[in-house]
Write a structure and sequence with these properties.
The protein is mainly alpha-helical. It is about 75% helix and about 0% strand. The chain has one domain.
């Protein structure tokens, strides 16, 4: 079934509203947010937390901590409350923040030197993954698709996801492949002092393929695309906020920053936000 067929069918009948996400999964937002914000506050306030990192990597970690405390985890709690009240829009956005949480704390767990917060990082990673799985499996894709209003900008949402997946995939490969062929280490990797770049790993193995799959499914009018697309898009927005935060924090810690990166990512994040809001507005019964 293509997108146009889906819109014709949903416009001709009342939507069959999906069941809300069970509260047992939403309750996990409390330990996730509590542990994540506690760890992030420690990273911001206690220099010893990142004492084993290079100055560049420690600055990136602190910048991410700021985004966690100021934006991501307060949003997770608010969205969980709204989802508990039956909002499908909030439930989809809540799962998007969980994508961000799992992605971010995978980096903390694998790429921050072993220390007193290691088990906290692991706990947030695990809880985020299980909450995300629980939320996704509790929704019927067919019912979610049926709840989307006919005028929802489905095609533009799908195209954006495919474009992002393609662009960043090519960008990362342009950094990786020449270094592999030359037998050298990328300069960015030398600066952070890590054996591999966790962003490259997570993006190329998981996030960008998920964005591509969500976009293609949505273009083809498949029900699962109507679930995955807003979830992945909100996750990308949260990750964009984190990057902008890192760029903003770097000068405050005496590190070089590239303002153009912040401007480009900030602009892309704003575009993603506009598209996500327009899509979620079309989700009825919220």
């Amino acid at each position: 079934m293509d997108v146009d067929t889906h819109l014709e069918r949903t416009s001709s009948r009342a939507p069959v509203l999906p069941e809300p996400v069970p509260r047992r999964w939403l309750w996990l937002s409390l330990p996730i947010a509590g542990l994540a914000m506690g760890a992030s506050l420690a990273g911001i306030l206690i220099d010893a937390i990142y004492a084993g990192e290079t100055a560049n990597w420690a600055t990136q970690a602190v910048g991410q901590d700021v985004a966690n405390v100021a934006v991501a985890y307060p949003a997770l709690l608010v969205l969980a409350v709204l989802a508990a009240r039956g909002s499908l829009r909030a439930a989809l956005a809540w799962m998007g923040v969980l994508v961000y949480s799992a992605y971010t704390f995978a980096i903390y767990a694998f790429s921050v030197s072993f220390g007193p917060l290691f088990l906290v990082y692991v706990a947030v990673l695990g809880l985020s993954v299980y909450a995300l799985i629980g939320g996704l499996t509790s929704l019927s894709p067919e019912r979610v698709a049926a709840s989307v209003a006919p005028r929802t900008p489905v095609r533009s949402t799908a195209v954006l996801l495919v474009a992002i997946a393609s662009a960043f995939g090519l960008l990362w490969l342009a950094e990786i492949v020449p270094s592999i062929l030359a037998g050298t280490t990328p300069d960015a990797l030398v600066e952070v002092g890590l054996p591999t770049n966790p962003v490259h790993v997570l993006d190329l193995a998981l996030l960008l393929p998920a964005a591509m799959i969500a976009g293609v499914l949505l273009l083809r009018g498949r029900a699962l695309g109507y679930v995955l697309a807003p979830v992945i898009l909100v996750g990308l927005i949260a990750l964009g906020v984190g990057i902008v935060s890192v760029v903003a924090v770097a000068p405050l810690r005496g590190e070089d920053a590239v303002p153009a990166v912040g401007l480009v990512i900030g602009g892309l994040t704003l575009l993603q936000l506009v598209v996500a809001v327009r899509f979620l507005r079309g989700v009825r019964g919220s």
